C-alpha cells in the first residue's frame, strides 16, 4: 500500500474511533463539542519496538491533560509518516487513553552498488539518500534510482538501467543493492544548423560547447547531451550573432532527438539570422542634475558607422553607470534606446541616464556551487547586503565571475525582497574543473637534445580561489624547479599577493655550469577591469662553477668557483588585457610594461625597462581566420661601472622561433653566452581551421614570421673578445599545428631561420602541451 493510501486509512480509522466522519474535503468533527473538549490522560504506543515509544510521543502534537481536535490527530499522523520509520500509523481514543498503533518499516542494514564501473561507489553513495541504519522506504528508493540515472546521463550514458535487490538479514533489517547496467555511451551523431547563411555549420559548431561524437569523445566528454547544456549553447549563439551586427537574430527552435535503437542523439538548431546592422547616431541624454551629457559621451565605446555589437553597448552602459555613481548618484539607471533604420540597416543608440528608483540589496543568494566557497563569489560584487542596488554592478560582477574560469556557467537574476524597495540578488553558478597538468618540450642542438617540462596547477585551490603551481623540467644538461602561490584577495582587499620559489641549473655552456635559486614576493592591484599594476621584490643567489678555469673568459673568472653572487631587485609592471577569450582569443590586446631596479643590497646594480604586446584580430569570421601581431623590446642601464653577465637580457626560442634557448645575441669567443643590453622583436601569425577536418577534432593550422635582435654590452670584458655585439637582425618563418586536444591546447612549431649569425644556436622544432584533469 502506498504512503498516501496508508495515510487515508489511518485518518479514516481515527475518524471512526474518535466519533468523526471523513469527507472529500478533509476530516470533519461530528460535533464541535468533541473538537473542543477531547482530553486524554495518557498515551499508549504499540508496535514501536526498535524506534521506541518516546520517539513516537515526541512526534505527536497531542499531550495528556490538553484538549485536542482532529487537526491535531491529522498533524500527528503526518509527522510520524514523515520520519520514514513507519509503514502504517493508526491513532484512536479508548476512554481517556490515546492509542497509537504503528507498523515499523524495515531498517536498511547496508547499501551496496553492483555493476558500476564509470561512477565509483563513493560518488553514488553521495547521490542516494537511502542510508545504512535508515528506514527502508520504497518511495525513497525510487527517487534514488532516478538520481543514479541522472548521474549517468550527465556522463553520456542515457540508456543506463537500475534495479534493486534486497536480502533480509533478520531482526527487521535488510541489505539493499542497486544493480546497475551502465549500457553504452549515448553519442551525438549530428549537430545540424538550419537557416544560417552568414556563417557555416562548422563555424557555428566552434561557438557552442556541445560537440559531435568522434574518436576522442571518450576523453573530452563534449558529446554529452543535456537540456541545460543546450540552453547554454543557445545563449552562446545569441551572443555570437549579437556581437557581430545581427541584432534581430533569434533561435526558432532547438531540439534533440534520441534514436533509442542506436542510442544516438541528433541535435537540430533552427535560426533566423536577420539583417546585419551598423551603429547609427549615438547620443547620451542625462536627466541627472549636475551630470553633463557631453562628459558622458566620451565614455561611449559605440561609434557611428561601426559594426553593431551588443557587448560594446554593455561596456558603454557600465562605464557611464560607474562614472555617475562615483559622482554621488548610487541609484543611477542607464537605459539604451535603439532606433532601427531598416532602409540603411543601422541602429541608432541613445543612452538615457536617470536617477532610477531607490532600491537596496536585501541579500545575495548563491546557488549551485558545489566546490567554490560562497565568499569567493561574494567578493566579486562591488556591493553587499544593505547597499544601493545598481544593475550595472550586477553586469560587472557577472563578467568578473566568468573571467575567473571557475565556472562553466554564471547567471545572475533578481527577485523581489521583503519590502518594495528591497531586491534579492540570486547567483546561479556551475563549477568546472580548474586543475591543469601540463607537459611542454622541444629539441635543442648542442648536446642538450630533448627538453621536457611537467607542471601541475590548480586555479581554485580547495575552492578558495587561490592559485598554486608546481613545475619541473629540463633535458640532459638543464634542470628547472618552480613553486608559485597566489592569494587573489589579500587581507580582504582586491589585491593578488603571492610568491614564487625557483631553482635553475644550466650546463649547456661549454665552460661552466650555472645555478640560480631564489624567491619573489609580488602583489597585484587592479586599476580598471582591463588594467592592473604589479609590484615585485626578487632575491636571487647565482653561482657559476667550472672544472677548467683557464677555459673561461675574463667576465666569468671573477664569479666562477667563488662566493655566490646575490641579486636584490624591485620591479613594477603595468598590464593590460582586453582579450575576448583567454584560451582561444579572436579579438583584443594583451600588453605589459616593466621597470626593474637592482641594487637594494646584493651584487647587481642596474635599471631595466622592457615590455611586450600582442594584438588579436579576426580576419574572417566566416572562415575563422585569426591574425595576431606581437612586439617586444627592452633596454638595460648599468648603475655602476658595469654589470654582471647574468644581469643582461638573453634571447632564444620564446622570442624568435627557430633558435635555441640563449641561442641569439652576443657570445664570447669561447662560446659562452654574454647577453645584451638592448633587444626588440616583432612577430606576425595567422591561424585557421584545417580544411577537410571536422572542427570537432579541434585542429588548426598556423603560419608565422618572427624577427628581432639582441645587442649591446655593459659587461667589463677585461680584454676578452665577443661576437654579435652589433645589432644584427635575426628572422625566421615557419608553420604550426595547433590542436585543442583532450589534454588541452597542444602546439607544434617548425621554424626555419632565414637570417642568423654564425655564432647563433638553432632549434627548429618545438612543441608544448597543456592538459586538464
Strand order of the largest sheet: 18-19-20-21-22-23-24-25-26-27-28-31-32-34-35-37
Remind me, CATH topology of the largest domain? Answer: Porin
How helix-rich are the residues, as a percent range? 10-25%
Low-confidence stretches: 1-37
- CATH architecture annotation name of the largest domain: Beta Barrel
C-alpha geometry: globular
Provide the domain count.
6
CATH C-level category of the largest domain: Mainly Beta
Topology, element by element:
Blueprint: H1 3-18, E1 20-23, E2 26-29, H2 32-37, E3 42-46, H3 53-58, H4 70-82, E4 86-94, E5 97-104, E6 107-114, H5 121-127, H6 138-153, E7 161-170, E8 173-181, E9 187-194, H7 201-205, H8 217-220, H9 227-242, E10 250-259, E11 264-272, E12 278-286, H10 293-297, H11 310-326, E13 333-341, E14 346-354, E15 360-367, H12 374-378, H13 391-404, E16 407-416, E17 422-431, E18 435-444, E19 449-461, E20 466-474, E21 478-487, E22 496-506, E23 513-526, E24 531-545, H14 554-557, E25 565-577, E26 588-602, E27 606-620, E28 625-638, E29 658-659, E30 667-668, E31 678-689, E32 699-711, E33 722-723, E34 730-741, E35 744-755, E36 762-763, E37 765-772
Parallel strand pairs: 3-5, 6-8, 9-11, 12-14, 15-17
Antiparallel strand pairs: 1-2, 4-5, 7-8, 10-11, 13-14, 16-17, 18-19, 18-37, 19-20, 20-21, 21-22, 22-23, 23-24, 24-25, 25-26, 26-27, 27-28, 28-31, 29-36, 30-33, 31-32, 32-34, 34-35, 35-37
Helix pairs in contact: 1-4, 11-13
Structure at a glance:
The protein has 773 residues and is an alpha+beta fold. The protein has 14 helices and 37 strands. The protein has six domains: 3-104, membrane protein fhac (Ubiquitin-like (UB roll)), CATH 3.10.20; 107-181, Ubiquitin-like (UB roll) (Roll), CATH 3.10.20.310; 187-272, membrane protein fhac (Ubiquitin-like (UB roll), Roll); 278-354, Roll (Ubiquitin-like (UB roll)), CATH 3.10.20.310; 360-431, membrane protein fhac (Ubiquitin-like (UB roll)), CATH 3.10.20; 435-772, membrane protein fhac: a member of the omp85/tpsb transporter family (Porin).
Amino acid at each position: 500500500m502506498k504512503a498516501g493510501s496508508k495515510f487515508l486509512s489511518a485518518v479514516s480509522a481515527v475518524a471512526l474511533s474518535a466519533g468523526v466522519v471523513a469527507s472529500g474535503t478533509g476530516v470533519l468533527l461530528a460535533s464541535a463539542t468533541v473538537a473542543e473538549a477531547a482530553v486524554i490522560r495518557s498515551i499508549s504506543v504499540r508496535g514501536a519496538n526498535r524506534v521506541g515509544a518516546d520517539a513516537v510521543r515526541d512526534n505527536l502534537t497531542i499531550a495528556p491533560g490538553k484538549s485536542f481536535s482532529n487537526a491535531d490527530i491529522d498533524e500527528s499522523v503526518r509527522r510520524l509518516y514523515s520520519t520514514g520509520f513507519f509503514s502504517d500509523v493508526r491513532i484512536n481514543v479508548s476512554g481517556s487513553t490515546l492509542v497509537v498503533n504503528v507498523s515499523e518499516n524495515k531498517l536498511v542494514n547496508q547499501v551496496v552498488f553492483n555493476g558500476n564501473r564509470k561512477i565509483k561507489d563513493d560518488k553514488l553513495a553521495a547521490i542516494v539518500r537511502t542510508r545504512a541504519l535508515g528506514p527502508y522506504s520504497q518511495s525513497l528508493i525510487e527517487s534514488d534510482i532516478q538520481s543514479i540515472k541522472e548521474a549517468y546521463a550527465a556522463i553520456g550514458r542515457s540508456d543506463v538501467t537500475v534495479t534493486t535487490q534486497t536480502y533480509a538479514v533478520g531482526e527487521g533489517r535488510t541489505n539493499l543493492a542497486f544493480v546497475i547496467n551502465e549500457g553504452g555511451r549515448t553519442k551525438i551523431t549530428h549537430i545540424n544548423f538550419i537557416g544560417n547563411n552568414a556563417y557555416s555549420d562548422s563555424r557555428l559548431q566552434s561557438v557552442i560547447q556541445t560537440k559531435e561524437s568522434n574518436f576522442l569523445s571518450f576523453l573530452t566528454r563534449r558529446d554529452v547531451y543535456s537540456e541545460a547544456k543546450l540552453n547554454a549553447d543557445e545563449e552562446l549563439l545569441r551572443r555570437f550573432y549579437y556581437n557581430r551586427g545581427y541584432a534581430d537574430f533569434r533561435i526558432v527552435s532547438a531540439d534533440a532527438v534520441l534514436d533509442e535503437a542506436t542510442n544516438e542523439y541528433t541535435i537540430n538548431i533552427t535560426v533566423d539570422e536577420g539583417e546585419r546592422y551598423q551603429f547609427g547616431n549615438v547620443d547620451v541624454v542625462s536627466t541627472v542634475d549636475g551630470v553633463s551629457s557631453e562628459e558622458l559621451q566620451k565614455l561611449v565605446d559605440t561609434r557611428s558607422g561601426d559594426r553593431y555589437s551588443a557587448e560594446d553597448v554593455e561596456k558603454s552602459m557600465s562605464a557611464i553607470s560607474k562614472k555617475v555613481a562615483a559622482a554621488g548618484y548610487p541609484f543611477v539607471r542607464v537605459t539604451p534606446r535603439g532606433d532601427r533604420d531598416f532602409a540603411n540597416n543601422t541602429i541608432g543608440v541613445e543612452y538615457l541616464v536617470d536617477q532610477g528608483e531607490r532600491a537596496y540589496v536585501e541579500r545575495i543568494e548563491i546557488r549551485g556551487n558545489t566546490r567554490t566557497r560562497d565568499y569567493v563569489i561574494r567578493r566579486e560584487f562591488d556591493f553587499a547586503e544593505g547597499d544601493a542596488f545598481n544593475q550595472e554592478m550586477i553586469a560587472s560582477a557577472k563578467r568578473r565571475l566568468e573571467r575567473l574560469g571557475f565556472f562553466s556557467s554564471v547567471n545572475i537574476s533578481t527577485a523581489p525582497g521583503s519590502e518594495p524597495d528591497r531586491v534579492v540578488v540570486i547567483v546561479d553558478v556551475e563549477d568546472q574543473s580548474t586543475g591543469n597538468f601540463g607537459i611542454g618540450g622541444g629539441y635543442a642542438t648542442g648536446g642538450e637534445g630533448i627538453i621536457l617540462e611537467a607542471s601541475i596547477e590548480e586555479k581554485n585551490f580547495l575552492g578558495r580561489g587561490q592559485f598554486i603551481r608546481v613545475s619541473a623540467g629540463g633535458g640532459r644538461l638543464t634542470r628547472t624547479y618552480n613553486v608559485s602561490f597566489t592569494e587573489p584577495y589579500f587581507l580582504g582587499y582586491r589585491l593578488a599577493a603571492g610568491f614564487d620559489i625557483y631553482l635553475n641549473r644550466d650546463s649547456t655552456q661549454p665552460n661552466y655550469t650555472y645555478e640560480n635559486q631564489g624567491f619573489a614576493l609580488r602583489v597585484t592591484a587592479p586599476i580598471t577591469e582591463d588594467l592592473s599594476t604589479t609590484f615585485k621584490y626578487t632575491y636571487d643567489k647565482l653561482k657559476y662553477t667550472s672544472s677548467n678555469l683557464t677555459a673561461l673568459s675574463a667576465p666569468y673568472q671573477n664569479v666562477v668557483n667563488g662566493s655566490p653572487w646575490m641579486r636584490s631587485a624591485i620591479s613594477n609592471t603595468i598590464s593590460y588585457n582586453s582579450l575576448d577569450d583567454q584560451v582561444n582569443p579572436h579579438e583584443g590586446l594583451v600588453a605589459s610594461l616593466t621597470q626593474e631596479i637592482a641594487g637594494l643590497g646584493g651584487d647587481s646594480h642596474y635599471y631595466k625597462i622592457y615590455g611586450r604586446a600582442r594584438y588579436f584580430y579576426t580576419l574572417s569570421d566566416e572562415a575563422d581566420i585569426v591574425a595576431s601581431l606581437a612586439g617586444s623590446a627592452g633596454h638595460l642601464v648599468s648603475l655602476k661601472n658595469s654589470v654582471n653577465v647574468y644581469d643582461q637580457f638573453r634571447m632564444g626560442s620564446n622570442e624568435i622561433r627557430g633558435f635555441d634557448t640563449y641561442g641569439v645575441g652576443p657570445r664570447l669567443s669561447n662560446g659562452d653566452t654574454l647577453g645584451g643590453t638592448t633587444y626588440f622583436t616583432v612577430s606576425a601569425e595567422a591561424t585557421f581551421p584545417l580544411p577537410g577536418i571536422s572542427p570537432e577534432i579541434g585542429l588548426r593550422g598556423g603560419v608565422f614570421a618572427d624577427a628581432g635582435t639582441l645587442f649591446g654590452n655593459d659587461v667589463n670584458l677585461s680584454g676578452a673578445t665577443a661576437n654579435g655585439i652589433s645589432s644584427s637582425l635575426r628572422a625566421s618563418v615557419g608553420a604550426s599545428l595547433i590542436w585543442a586536444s583532450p589534454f588541452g591546447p597542444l602546439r607544434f612549431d617548425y621554424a626555419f631561420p632565414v637570417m642568423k649569425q654564425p655564432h647563433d644556436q638553432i632549434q627548429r622544432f618545438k612543441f608544448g602541451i597543456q592538459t586538464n584533469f
